[in-house]
């Protein structure tokens, strides 16, 4: 669970009085959520909160919640919403979340979104969640995922947008490039179906409350970041009126 408070001095002076609050970044596999989350962390000195990281931390540290979760994981059972919610609640008590945080992988369901809203409402000093969806056309995402190739030392290429000089060979070390099993079209299609089924109710939930915006993710990274920052400021201004 990485904290980026060390980046706070780099925040522009004009941003010091702006509280980003809780930000939910939504987007299909391959849209660049991770890259954009890092940009927001650096800009505002806020942490990224990943339910996967929280789960692993609790299990590795043997907390009561971690022990309960490990029992379920060892049995091949999904960790319940209630257990995940408790872990998130504990994480939100940490002081690095004071100015805001970026949510990664949570809330995935409408039940989790309702729980999170109630949890934040119970703390009078906490802003409500705003949701920003990074959108890229399906075919472009398909190329981003299925075109990805890596070598043994993790140099990354894309046969469509960033191909190696010699097909199938790493420019740096001359080793063979491979396609990871998870980067196949079949796996991508299933991940998209799951994403759309889970996310649609969450998007509608925040859209109805006026706390949702879409940002075009098919642009240079810096332009996408600027779009997200602009959307965040509009949503915060609207929610404070």
TrEMBL record:
Pathway: Purine metabolism; AMP biosynthesis via salvage pathway; AMP from ADP: step 1/1. It is found in: Cytoplasm. Its EC number is 2.7.4.3. Consists of three domains, a large central CORE domain and two small peripheral domains, NMPbind and LID, which undergo movements during catalysis. The LID domain closes over the site of phosphoryl transfer upon ATP binding. Assembling and dissambling the active center during each catalytic cycle provides an effective means to prevent ATP hydrolysis. One of its GO terms (cellular component) is cytoplasm. It catalyses: AMP + ATP = 2 ADP. The lineage of its organism: Bacteria, Pseudomonadati, Acidobacteriota, Terriglobia, Terriglobales. Keywords: ATP-binding, Cytoplasm, Kinase, Nucleotide biosynthesis, Nucleotide-binding, Transferase. It comes from Tunturiibacter empetritectus. HAMAP family: Adenylate_kinase_Adk. GO terms for molecular function: AMP kinase activity; ATP binding. Residues 50-79 are annotated as: NMP. The gene is adk. This is Adenylate kinase. AMP binds at residues 51, 56, 77-79, 105-108, 112, 180, 191. Monomer.
């Amino acid at each position: 669970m990485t904290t980026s408070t060390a980046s706070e001095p780099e925040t522009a002076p004009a941003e010091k009085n702006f509280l980003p609050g809780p930000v939910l970044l939504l987007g299909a596999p391959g849209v660049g959520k991770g890259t954009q989350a890092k940009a927001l962390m650096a800009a505002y000195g806020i942490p990224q909160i990943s339910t996967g990281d929280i789960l692993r931390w609790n299990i590795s540290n043997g907390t009561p919640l971690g022990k309960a979760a490990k029992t379920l994981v060892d049995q091949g059972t999904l960790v319940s919403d209630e257990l995940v919610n408790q872990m998130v609640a504990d994480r939100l008590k940490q002081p690095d979340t004071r100015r805001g945080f970026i949510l990664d992988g949570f809330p995935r369901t409408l039940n989790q979104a309702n729980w999170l809203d109630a949890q934040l409402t119970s703390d009078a000093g906490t802003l409500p969640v705003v949701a920003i969806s990074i959108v890229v056309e399906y075919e472009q995402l398909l190329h981003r995922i299925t075109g990805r190739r890596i070598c043994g030392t993790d140099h990354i290429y894309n046969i469509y947008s960033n191909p190696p000089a010699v097909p199938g060979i790493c420019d740096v070390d001359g080793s063979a490039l491979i396609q990871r099993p998870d980067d196949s079209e079949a796996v991508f299609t299933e991940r998209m179906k799951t994403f759309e089924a889970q996310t649609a109710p969450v998007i509608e939930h925040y859209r109805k409350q006026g706390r949702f915006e879409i940002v075009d993710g098919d642009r240079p990274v810096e332009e996408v970041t600027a779009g997200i920052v602009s959307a965040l400021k509009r949503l915060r201004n609207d929610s404070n009126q």
